[in-house]
Specification:
The structure is a single chain. The protein has about 100 residues and is mostly helical. It folds into two domains: about 70 residues; about 35 residues, no CATH class. It has three helices and two strands. The chain has a two-stranded antiparallel ribbon.
């Protein structure tokens, strides 16, 4: 009779062990997935910021090139040389009352 009792407990112990292992695996897998989700969200945020920076830079460049006089007028005196270098990287030439940008 005791042999039969030992056999009847064995499946219950195995089910309990399997459930414990399954739960442990689920917890580890969930933690791994949570880390992966956090990383992917962070990468998406960085990508969005980079995209916004590129878009903002392109809008600024378009506005600058369409109306450089407005930027010149609003620029502080210490910023004007940098603005001039950005618009005319080869500089401006003065020749007998005429201003030019090339040869």
């Amino acid at each position: 009779m005791s042999a039969l009792r030992g056999l009847s407990l064995r499946p219950a112990v195995l089910r309990l062990f399997e459930a414990t292992v399954r739960d442990s695996w689920k917890q580890r897998h969930k933690a791994s997935l949570d880390r992966d989700i956090k990383l992917r969200k962070r990468l998406a945020e960085l990508h969005d910021r980079a995209s916004m920076d590129v878009d903002a830079t392109l809008r600024f460049a378009r506005n600058l090139l369409c109306d450089p006089a407005r930027f010149w007028e609003k620029a502080a005196p210490e910023h004007r040389p940098r603005l001039q270098d950005a618009i005319y990287p080869d500089g401006l030439e003065y020749d007998g009352g005429l201003v030019g940008t090339g040869p």
